Amino acid sequence: MLPPELPPLPALTRAEAELIDRYLEVVDLLGRINPALDGDTYRGLRAAQALVAKSIALRDALTLMHQRGETELHAATLARALRVLDGERRTARLTLPRNPSVDAEPSARMLVLSTSVRA
Fold first, then answer.
1. Would you give the distance in Å from CA 58 to the centre of its chain?
2. pLDDT, tens only, 91-119
3. Per residue, what are the HEC states of the chain?
């Protein structure tokens, strides 16, 4: 049986497609650098080194859009493209993982803060 077919990408200009591709490359690298996730420093170092070039490519994609007169970002269309390209999973690596013990009991967090201030 064949895997389910992905939804089609929305119609994008070449510059918008370039923007989405470069943005997701930067997101992927930032996800590898995220200190709140398990990993090793060498992996983060390599990602940080690559981030410089990918950030420049992202800037160049935005510059090209601006030079071509594409002065507005069509958020709904670009968000659809990001979702088709697994952007939700990829950007989730940029956030802090949930800490159930702290998130569930805000009063416990306040207690820890108040006792550390007194000490």
1. 13
2. 999 998 887 665 555 555 555 555 555 55
3. CCCCCCCCCCCCCHHHHHHHHHHHHHHHHHHHHCCCCCCCHHHHHHHHHHHHHHHHHHHHHHHHHHHCCCCCCCHHHHHHHHHHCCHHHHHHCCCCCCCHHHHHCHHHHHHHHHHHHHC
pLDDT digits (tens, 9 = 90+) for 64-96: 999 999 999 999 999 999 999 999 999 999 998
Q: 113: Cβ–Cβ under 8 A, 6 or more apart, which residues? A: none
Spatial neighbors of 61 by CB under 8 A, at least 6 apart, are 15, 18, 19, 21, 22
Q: What residue segments make up the domains of the chain, in order of their start?
A: 14-118
In this predicted structure, what is the pLDDT of residue 109? 52
Alpha-carbon distances, residue 14 vs 24, 70, 100 (angstroms): 16, 11, 43
Q: Which one has a higher pLDDT value, 7 or 53?
A: 53
pTM across the whole model:
0.77
